Amino acid sequence: MHREKSFRGISVRLARNYLENLGGTAVDDETVEGDGWRADLSAEKVAVGPSLELTEVTVAFDADGLAESEFEALVADFSRKAMRAGG
To answer: How buried is 10 (Cβ within 10 angstroms: 0-12 exposed, 13-18 middle, 19+ buried)?
Structure first.
């Protein structure tokens, strides 16, 4: 299973921390692995209007060892954490 989600207003460091709180272990600055899943993080600056830029973090979730319901729960749990931080 694979899913990519993007979030504005959070950092890669914070996203990595959230993934670690969900049971993952940081492999490096942009990769976190958990039991049956992996998340790769990337960031870029995106324009919001004519004079404002925000950091947009993209998380690419991959899971081989999870049931679909577990995978969906992981993505949803991360999304809730990330949306609270970005607001």
So the answer is: buried
pTM of the model: 0.87
- Distance, in Å, from the CA atom of 19 to the CA atom of 70, rounded to the nearest integer, reads 14
Q: Side chain identity at 18, as an amino acid letter?
A: Y
What residues does each domain of the chain span? 2-86
Does 27 have pLDDT greater than 90? yes
Match domain 2-86 to its CATH number in 3.10.180.10, 3.40.309.10, 3.30.1370.80, 3.30.70.60.
3.30.1370.80
